[in-house]
Amino acid sequence: MGDGKYSRPPKRKPGLTLIRVVVAGAYGRMGREVLKTVWQAEDMVLVGAVDVRGEGQDVGPLWGAPEVGVTLQGELDKVLAETRPDVMVDFTTPDVVAENIKTALHHGVRPVVGTTGMSSRELEEIRALAGELKLGCVIAPNFAIGAVLMIRFAAEAARYLPHVEIIELHHDQKLDAPSGTAIKTAEVVAAARGDFRQGLPTEVEKIPGARGGSFDGGIRIHSVRLPGLVAHQEVIFGGLGQTLSIRHDSISRESFMPGVLLAIRRVMHLEGVVYGLENLLFE
After folding, report:
1. pLDDT of 67-90, one tens digit each?
2. Into which EC class is this enzyme placed (predicted)?
3. Is 143 annotated among the ligand-binding residues?
4. How far apart are alpha carbons 216 and 212 in whole angstroms?
């Protein structure tokens, strides 16, 4: 038997309007954490779970609970039509996420998305569709509030120490590199420091890729993939006789859940796409 405290929904106040939630990518590690978190939230109800893995099984044992009466199904379109949710939370893979978002929007469902790896074209198509349908959509490279603060602090530091390199470290099952968080960090750093280019033009890589990927203005991004890691990033600034490091570590996937809950609640009152959790935190 699983932990009894996760086996039933929380006590809810009479008259409380519940947000109906479907989780896509529910069988994965992030998906399981979202399932548990939504199940425990007093203002939410888990109405569906989608994943081609484990199809037909009850989702309760995925987070260590007894059966809860919600089964994994393989077809998102069918689940959305049958359960009529308010919000779809997506932690799937880069090859399906854009289509999942469009499917949700066409069903009148608001997406909250943590899957990274979408192209600029896909993002623009989603912005246009969400705007046309007047539906909220939150897409965040990282839902950990500490990671969002790291990015904000990095933008401030870049104004004074514009020489920057980024090292991001993740578990070895992550499909995309560099991470969405690293790209977002590089974007805000580049914007903060303006017209600046770093690096030695005459340097030579003895092993291709040894200096990492090169972002705008010569910002180098290095990706590490190893078992035992969850999600980590260090932003290193160099100046005359000094360095500054800003680092964030997600020790467990629980670190992302306060941000996911915030996004689920806030997306209900949005129109169009909000990209980045910072736009909900620091508005």
Report:
1. 999 999 999 999 999 999 999 999
2. oxidoreductase
3. yes
4. 13
